[in-house]
Design brief:
Pfam families: Septknot (PF19647). This protein is mostly beta strands. It has one domain. It is built from 1 helix and 7 strands, in the order H-E-E-E-E-E-E-E. The chain has a 6-stranded parallel β-barrel with strand order 1-4-3-6-2-5.
Length: 128
Amino acid sequence: MLYFLPLFFFLLGLGSPAGSTVGKPETIPIVAPREPEICRMFGSIYLTADPKQKNYARFTVYIDTEDTYADLLVFRENNKLFADAPGLWYITTSRNFADHVLFITTNRAFADFTIHYTKARTFAGCRK
């Protein structure tokens, strides 16, 4: 009967008798879903639509034809040095030298956010 006493205390959650240390289970922190920080996205951007390179991309983007529904208005810069504010992107052809790698999807439901290309530099920026 004395052999089952430690098991009895352990199952009740009282710990074990005589001061021996039995570790309590650790709590696992819950990670919040990642929110794309589109208001901080600028610089050199590498866009890919290749499904083989989807794992390299940080976010999935849908290119919208209407600026009304887009989360971010993007102006394409010709020089990387001028892409220094949100919505000002220098589209690069090399993934290795890009600040952000984005995957282009054709389905709006799979996108993390939507963009629209604007012709005026002053309209570039986030909508939020």
